[in-house]
Amino acid sequence: MPYVRQAKTSFTAGEIAPELLGRHDLKSYENGAARLRNVVVKSTGGVSRRPGLAFVDTVPGPARLIAFAFNTEQDYLLAVVDGGMRVFRDDALATTAVTPWTEAQLDQLSWTQDADTLIVCHPEVAPRRITRTGHTSWTIAGFTFDTDATTGACKQPYFRFAPATVTLTPSATTGTITLTASASLFQAGHVGARFRLDGKEVQISAVTSGTVATGSVIQTLTGTAATKNWDEQAFSPVRGWPLTAAFHQSRLVFGGSRDLPNRIWMSRTAAPENFDLGTGLDDEGIEFGLLADQVNAVCALFPGRHLQVFTSGAEWMVSGEPLTPERVEVRRQTRVGSPPDRFIPPRNVDGATLFVAHSRRALHEFVYTDLDQAYAAADLALLAPHLFVPLIVDLDFDAMRRLVLAITDDGYLAALTIYRSEQVAAWTRFDMDGAFRRCAVVGDDTYVLVERGEFWCIERFDGAFGTDSCLAGTATPATAAWSGLEHLEGREVRVVADGSDLGTKTVEDGELAIDRVASAIEIGLSFRHEVMPLPLVLEPLAGGHVAPMRLVRARFRLEASAALQIDTGRGLQPVPFQSVGGGGLLDAAPARFTGDKEVRALGWVRGPEQPLWRIEQDSPLPCTILSVMTEAKGAD
After folding, report:
1. Alpha-carbon distances, residue 575 vs 557, 578, 614 (angstroms)
2. Which residues contact 364 (CB under 8 A, 6 or more apart)?
3. Per CATH, domain 158-233 is 2.40.10
4. Domain segments of the chain as ranges
5. pLDDT, tens digit (0-9, with 9 covering 90-100), for 443-489
6. pTM for the whole thing?
7. What are the backbone angles phi and psi of residue 106, rounded to the nearest 5°?
8. Could you report the per-residue pLDDT of 378-405, keeping only the tens digit for each?
9. Residue 357 to residue 533: CA distance in whole angstroms
């Protein structure tokens, strides 16, 4: 059989699923790989070892990470934990605060920001305003609706929950009165809530039974006769609170609640605390339900070209230029659905909105097309469904690195390199010594919450490092003793001293002694990256079998790399890795190499499932592969 030469110049299709190994006709087969672990695909086609993780701080347990951008120079990371919140700026703890949310409620927290205020929602807790007044000055208060200064009426949403036949009878028209219902209606949670009788408000002060309550008249009632014309405030401890919120066209929008999951409320223009519907003037409040042939519980809102509403059964477009009670149009677009049991925020990528499917095993791209005048929802995980057998729990987009980050409940991170204009969408997988739990992109920095044994750590991706949970330091004069490593207690860590890999050591009592003095050091947990190509496409010989193949030589084009280990195989057995790139346990830091490195190989690989080469290494030094040229020979 003649020599087979192959040029692997691009990995821009990313890691593809094993079930696609037979689809040689796909363009993605040519540009894909069998395994891409702990590497980042470059827009030009190459792959690089992923950035390490710089240690920031520990938190007492599970947390929700929220990015807070006050302006272009003042970015904060909020870590909401059980009953509290920690505020970080520039990797330092700025302040802490007490919050009403428990650990069990963190998954359903949703939020939206306007200037220096964050509005946080949960279906079982009244919305809260988190307001920044200074780097270390933050307040958390309940969200309140406007009240008419003359009449005392509260400009909040109202709804009739009881059947139309149920009546309310007031004992008087002013003062403290008794309300009597014709059917069981009142609950203890109604204390403090407001009811409207013929448009006039009464605030409940006590509940005697399911049919009798005491209240204070806010607006003089029209009479004492039984009336069917009544309603109650839409949000309360009895009926639940808003599920999610967003700002769109200068209106605050609440989406869904526990008892009204398919409803949308919009505030008055430029008045986010005023949801009064009034008489339907252009700037007054708007309210409607999403009615269709399936359940449409609101899961998330996104203010894009139109107000995008993501529900448990479909995706909707709310349009109107501008949005007014008369002009608002609501149209269902696609039928993918979003997870109703947790809030996973949709993310904007170059005009497209990325959202997690109802199954949490797919990521879709919600895009408006001018040709169709409608939205489509393509599946971005179509080529790599195997990465989402575990369920997605969190999502964000690192615009600087062009990475979509999807964290799964198994604790790894599926990373999508995406360039929509160049049609690049390449999946890889990040894993580590521990488990990824949450992520948040703050400005140009990406933070993750990591669980490692008893420690819950906040860490930041940093291209200057090659290890995880790492600390870096300098010393003058140089020293061999380093401390401050309590979060790595008892762990085997990798040491990079003055740019040279010194191998592994074990942290004891939060300290580490290395074998020689160093003036600059990086100490962290090692991680292993792997690049494995797809098998060669070979035509079977007579009889249907595939001839054994032998890799003769491979040329790896590198960029600014300091270490490379390659497995070229030896028959059906793996062979030891061959170091061809520099590095090692030397006192001097290895030089960064750009150019070609060639290796020759012995042995045979049989069958279409076996690749000719594989890269795998845990050296905490940079490694970038731009292309691979291989020459193989088949048996005669």
Report:
1. 22, 9, 11
2. 334, 336, 354, 355, 356, 357, 377, 378, 379, 380
3. yes
4. 3-51+546-634, 158-233, 236-342, 467-525
5. 999 999 999 989 999 999 999 999 999 999 999 999 999 999 999 99
6. 0.92
7. -65, -35
8. 999 999 999 998 899 999 999 999 999 9
9. 29
